[in-house]
Design a protein that fits this description.
about 25% strand; alpha/beta; globular; 6-stranded mixed beta sheet; 7 helices; about 220 residues; ABC_transporter-like_ATP-bd; Rossmann fold
Length: about 220
């Protein structure tokens, strides 16, 4: 299995007089899951969008396998990004979405034969629950042939059953790619992540245990 490395640093992002991102360094390799926690408005989604290249910023350095990219999405089959909102067209069936989104028969069959997805193949996207939609989106993104995947709040507004399934998906796919996830659900995020960070004050703080989240005022005192 090929080993790949994603390195991110020197990111500066401001809104008006507010420094949103000022001290960011990320290094993610094949086989790793990096989890990023943070309150609303701290810049988690913005950070992923800057890395991907869908949001411009004052300064950034994005390197994949040592090669610099102004926008990571131009790097070919290197990185993909799951946004917070659904990208699935409501009027299409699940089967049609799978055929449209994935380019190889192997990946299409993998998703179509998934035990959670197979019963819904003939359903339209707008007939799925929030958890079913999110699970399908995560499954599609992780089955793209990219070295890295970024998932923005994969557990958000998802039923507990599908949170467990999404966690299993992430764990099973990290063997062949590096994965960066953001979320508010610190329990599931920390459970699935090899390294966890808290985005606060524009910087990423390494978190080894949940009591540190109390120290940073992310969680209330017990």
């Amino acid at each position: 299995m090929a080993q790949h490395t994603l390195e991110v640093d020197s990111i500066i992002e401001t809104f008006g007089y507010k420094h949103l991102l000022t001290d960011i360094f990320i290094k993610c390799a094949t086989g790793e899951v990096l989890g990023i926690l943070g309150r609303n408005g701290t810049g988690k989604s913005t950070l992923l969008q800057i890395i991907f290249g869908s949001v411009e910023t004052e300064n950034k350095s994005i390197r994949i396998d040592g090669q610099s990219y102004a926008n990571a999405y131009t790097a070919g089959e290197k990185i993909t990004y799951l946004p917070q909102g659904s990208f699935l067209p409501n009027s299409l069936t699940v089967a049609t979405v799978i055929r449209t989104f994935l380019s190889t028969e192997t990946s299409r069959n993998t998703v179509s034969e998934n035990a959670r997805i197979k019963p819904f193949l003939k359903k339209k996207i707008n007939a799925l629950s929030g958890g079913e939609k999110r699970y399908l989106q995560v499954l599609l993104i992780l089955n793209l042939p990219t070295a890295f995947a970024m998932l923005d709040e994969p557990f958000s507004q998802v039923e507990p059953l599908y949170r467990a399934d999404i966690k299993s998906l992430i764990q099973s796919h990290k063997e062949k790619k590096g994965i960066i996830i953001t979320d508010h659900d610190y329990v599931n995020l920390m459970a699935v992540s090899d390294k966890t960070f808290l985005l606060t004050g524009g910087a990423l703080k390494p978190i080894q245990e949940s009591k540190q989240l109390v120290e940073y005022n992310y969680l209330p005192p017990e």
